[in-house]
């Protein structure tokens, strides 16, 4: 979908660039496939702020997405594409012959009326889901499982995809958008195609209020604060914040690695950081 550039008829319109969503469904979602969503304002059960920068935002309902795609060998028809406030990608409503409906992540070039199917092996067509071990080398896919039957975890954001680059002893070698290459079990599922809405990263909200509608509060830079409020605060004139950027609680930030779950590190062939070390 294309981008919409607005004329500067007001300060809020100046510089505004949004994704054109005129082709999406304009009504409400299927009620049976949604559930209520409570907002916390970033506070825990004691009322203390535990996640900064969260508050307000437009009221939302959560759309239940079929990340597992385990309705095998049943061809479904795409009824419509919809906007989902909970994710950057668009979603597609699929109708099955037995009357069941499901939401799936909409890949690029998927249109209303298209047929999609999930099977052990099927045609390499956008929206079709199959086992990674059955895909031809070079296939681009998304919604990738890391454990068979768990549901897609990788490549779910707008415009993202993974690529199958090889096979090896019951595993497949996958290249992710970050540049990382890793092994994934061949029985894991993936959906053919790249995720829809690739222009999401090219938008410009143009005013603070649009971020508030998304539930994001403003962020004050540490260097603009006093020393009592932030490690970067204080100093004469304008300062950059020191050699080692830290959070308000002294933890390294801005590039410091925070990955704790190393249980699948033995599956990584080439780290996404490898290109940075050269």
Describe this structure in words.
The protein is mainly β. It folds into two domains: 3-38 and 56-200, Roll (SH3 type barrels); 221-264, Ribosomal protein L2, domain 3. The chain is 2% helix and 24% strand. It has one helix at residues 208-213; strands at residues 3-5, 17-19, 34-36, 61-63, 76-82, 91-95, 101-105, 115-116, 129-131, 140-142, 144-145, 152-154, 162-168, 171-175, 181-185, 189-192, 268-270. A seven-stranded antiparallel beta sheet has the order 9-16-10-13-14-15-17, with no helix packed on it. It has a four-stranded antiparallel beta sheet with strand order 7-6-5-8, with no helix packed on it. Strands 1-2 form a two-stranded antiparallel sheet. A hairpin with a 5-residue loop joins strand 14 and strand 15. It is globular. The chain starts with a strand and ends in an 8-residue tail after the last strand.
Based on the model shown, name its key terms:
globular; 278 residues; 2 domains; 4-stranded antiparallel beta sheet; SH3 type barrels; mainly beta; 1 helix; Ribosomal protein L2, domain 3; 17 strands
Radius of gyration: 22 Å
State the total count of DSSP E strands.
17
Largest sheet: 7 strands, antiparallel
List SSEs in N-to-C order. EEEEEEEEEEEEEEEEHE
Low-confidence stretches: none
Kindly state the percentage of residues in helix: under 10%
**Structural class from helices and strands?**
mainly beta
CATH architecture descriptor of the largest domain = Roll
Shape: globular
Mean pLDDT: 94
The third-level CATH topology of the largest domain is: SH3 type barrels
Total discrete domains: 2
Q: What fraction strand?
A: 15-25%
Strand order of the largest sheet: 9-16-10-13-14-15-17
* Overall CATH class of the largest domain: Mainly Beta
How far from one another are the termini? Answer: 37 Å
Count of runs of 4 or more consecutive helical residues: 1
